[in-house]
Amino acid sequence: MDAAALQRIFQEQFPEAGQSITVAAPGRVNLIGEHTDYNDGFVLPMAVDAKIMLTASARHDRQVRVYSVDFDAKDTFALDNIQPTQRHRWTNYMRGMCLMIQEATKVPLQGMDIVMQGNVPQGAGLSSSAALEVGTAVVVNELNKLQLDPVLMATLAQKAENEFVGVQCGIMDQFISMLGEEGHALFLDCRTLEYQKVPAPFHEAGAAIAVIDTAVKRGLVDSKYNERRQQCEDAVKALQQWQPDLTSLRDVGCELRPQVDQLPDVLARRARHVVDENQRVIDSVQALRSGDLAAFGQYMNASHDSLRDDYEVSCRELDLLVDLVRANPQAYGSRMTGAGFGGCTVSLIPSTEVADLEERVLPEYQRQTGLQPRLFVFNAAAGARKLC
Ligand code: ADP
Ligand code: MG
Questions:
Q1: Which ligand is nearest to the CA of 85?
Q2: Residue 315 CB coordination number (10 Å)
């Protein structure tokens, strides 16, 4: 659906509404840097060319009325008393976003009429939730002429997801959906929120970023995520015997690196993943900057192997998909992306090999698992913006 089509639906749903704006916010895929965000480390996500669009106009009261094209459902809430809802849970991301902006700016926001539609696959790990939050933030920012800093909006969007929706996530998803740039990945320091855009002209280089959804229902992910966070904290505490002022695995430098391997087995493996993964992100940025896709693919492979063996957040289906992709000698690299235990893999392959994924990898995966995988081929897209 394009912006004009969404605007027509807006007019049907809200015929009385005034002048409208249309905003788009993308989903994302993390190219490398997994389970590093909550360790104050580095990530390298890119915004993808799948997005959520919102058409909206301001109201004279303090009501927000939202229509979802995809769910064919309408919901209303009041800006004076924003509460979560069980009935239309998809509006919780928007409710939370309005609440966080209102609390941070102390500006009583104007009411809004909103129509939204998206093609970011939901619940697949491509962060449709962040796209919805960030898209809402841009709508609120524009309609109320707040001129908020994009980094602040990303931070408030994360707060909405953490505190209002109740999902623990780092800053990466909201950050890249807000600040992504076409043709670029973003090298983000999750501690300082400093970032650099990194050229990612995969298409021009005859390559493609292929994301495959395993279609595994993720059951374990919450408990295992919390367990990994705890293990990283335990590893920091254990390493303090050698470096008392250490506060995060991010700060394990060359001098301390040998001690990591001396920790008790599980802690050693968890810490080794995080420390080496941070270095892989730095090396991958270098590889991209020099256009070395082969080296980049090797770092992706090493990342997956470390997530599988040391961090133990992969699963049979993710490993199978990665192995099937890597069986093509032309593939540059393949890894799981996201928290793990399901979700998607991300692979860098020559564009000519997309057909191999369709004809060999997907059917073989389906044959061995009985699951129906989904393939998406993405380019690096722009972050959230007003289209018109
Ligand atoms: P992910 O962020 O990995 O896609 P989440 O479970 O965090 O998965 O977020 C998905 C939720 O976001 C959906 O269940 C829905 O509530 C909301 N959402 C995403 N896309 C849309 C959409 N196009 N229309 C309405 N709600 C959406
Ligand atoms: Mg999400």
A1: 1
A2: 18
